[in-house]
Write a structure and sequence with these properties.
There is one protein chain. This protein is an alpha/beta fold. It has 10 helices and 12 strands. Helix 1 packs across helix 9 and helix 3 packs parallel to helix 5. The longest helix has 14 residues. It has one domain: TIM Barrel. Helix content is about 30%, strand content about 15%. Strands 7-8-9-6-5-4-3-2-1-10-11-12 form a 12-stranded mixed beta sheet.
Length: about 325
């Protein structure tokens, strides 16, 4: 399945909920948000039907997101349904890690293949300031629990904030020195509350890491799977894992974008920046055939914009929802 610019689209990020047990400053307001009713959220059966049709068009990789996906009950049952689809090669998960330790055994049995844990700091007070919750110990316990499941790839995702200390970034990076995990630094996307934060670029973080660990070298992608997305990887002397960068603003990679996003409400988005897309929930609940849904997915992919225009003046049609509603 290709878009009008010849990009092959094989990766779908599926949000299963808009709800979250944290209140990160760049994602949700302190008081939370008005929650979507359960009736507006796709059922697991509806998600699986969309995924099956999309897989028939060439979607081979699926990542489950939120909000926080693990707050939705029995998520492992959805994982089982998705991993059973013939054309789907990989089902992965992104999570804040709070509930991961208590659910990982069920997720592993269901066939989850990789887990991305969002963690911006190892300092308890700073963690509380960013997330407005006191949950760092639970996240660290979950990471320790993951050692019991070596077949599941683990990555840490950090969103560096301007003004963060070099020590903060280096302490996170050191986890990749001691363990075979990837620590990735993701530039803030100016979406929702993220618009209120200045860009902290890849170069700024990398300079700090060099000061502590010395010169980096490009990581050999054959040493470990690079994942579904556009991360570039380096490593440092003595590191068992890798350091990754996802830099959509300072190192624009739209020409290689291979993804679409399905919100928890069933809205298929071809580009993070823009509000355009297709309401697949409406089609599902109006009794649309598989062929009608297939055509809608194919058309949405075909109309995927050439690139985002973050950093320029606001354009008509720019997405106004917070990330918890869009899907992380």
């Amino acid at each position: 399945m290709t878009d009008q610019y010849g990009r092959s689209i094989n990766y779908m990020r599926i949000s299963v909920t808009d709800r979250c047990n944290l209140r990160c400053v760049y994602c949700m307001p302190a008081e939370g948000v008005e929650q979507i009713s359960h009736s507006e959220i796709l059922t697991y059966q509806e998600i699986t039907r969309i995924a099956r049709i999309a897989a028939g068009l060439g979607i081979t990789r699926i990542k489950l997101t939120g909000g926080e996906p693990l707050v939705r009950r029995e998520l492992h049952s959805l994982v089982s349904m998705l991993t059973a689809l013939d054309q789907v090669e990989e089902v992965t998960l992104t999570t804040n890690g709070i509930l991961l330790g208590e659910q990982i055994a069920q997720l592993a049995a269901a066939g989850i293949q990789a887990v991305n844990v969002s963690l911006d700091t190892l300092d308890r007070e700073q963690y509380r300031a960013i997330t407005r919750r006191d949950g760092l110990e639970k996240v660290l316990a979950s990471l320790e629990k993951m050692k019991e499941f070596p077949q599941i790839r683990v990555k840490l995702n950090c969103v560096p904030l301007a003004g963060d200390s070099q020590e903060q970034w280096c302490s996170l990076a050191k986890l990749a020195k001691d363990r075979e995990i990837d620590v990735r630094f993701i530039e803030m996307m100016p979406v929702g509350l993220g618009k209120n934060f200045p860009l902290c670029s890849q170069e700024e973080v990398l300079r700090s890491l060099r000061d502590t660990f010395g010169s980096e070298k490009k990581a050999d992608s054959r040493e470990a799977p690079a994942g579904n997305g556009p991360a570039s990887y380096v490593t440092f002397e003595g590191f068992r894992g890798r350091i990754g960068f996802i830099s959509a603003l300072s190192h624009k990679f739209c020409g290689e974008c291979n993804r679409v996003r399905l919100s928890a409400e069933g809205f298929l988005k071809p580009c993070l920046q823009y509000a355009e897309g297709t309401d697949l929930r409406r089609l599902l609940r109006q009794g649309a055939s598989d062929q009608e849904i297939r055509s809608a997915i194919r058309q949405t992919v075909w109309e995927k914009p050439a690139c985002h225009q973050f950093g320029r003046a606001a354009e008509e049609g720019t997405e106004q929802k917070n990330m918890n509603r869009i899907g992380g």
